[in-house]
Design a protein that fits this description.
Elements (H helix, E strand, L loop, with lengths): L4 E5 L15 E6 L10 E5 L3 E6 L13 H4 L6 E9 L4 E6 L25
Antiparallel strand pairs: 1-4, 1-6, 2-3, 2-5, 3-4, 5-6
């Protein structure tokens, strides 16, 4: 199957593109309450929240990418994409068409250990 690429724009209004790295998985959610665009798709990154939108206008969709309108009917309320490239102003991500994407997050907690001091008297 041919890969579908999307552009993530509007990042400057949130955290900038610095939070998006190649390999990062983002969640795409239909923005049903957007007053300006009936096919708006917001892009969120856990645990930060919204980081941008899928580009949907002639001026913001780069050549070779799909607009939000072209992928809007390909999923229900949400889908996922994996970031492939990041520039200063936008990111290019590959749309993941699977109905279910299993994401494993690994983390390690650092415990602060009390140091034992010998009292020299």
């Amino acid at each position: 199957m041919k890969s579908i690429y999307i552009a993530i724009t509007g990042c400057q209004y949130y955290y900038g593109t610095k939070v998006l790295k190649p390999g990062t998985i983002v969640r795409l959610e239909k923005d049903l309450y957007n007053d300006y665009d009936d096919e708006a798709i917001s892009v969120t990154l856990a645990p930060l929240g919204q980081v941008g939108y899928v580009a949907n206008s002639v001026g913001t969709v780069p050549r070779g990418c799909y607009s939000a309108g072209r992928i809007y009917d390909r999923f229900g309320s949400h889908a996922f994409a994996v970031v492939k490239f990041v520039t200063k102003d936008l990111a290019i991500a590959e749309f993941l068409e699977e109905d279910f994407v299993k994401v494993t997050i690994k983390f390690r907690l650092k415990e602060k250990r009390k140091k034992k001091y010998k009292n020299k008297t």
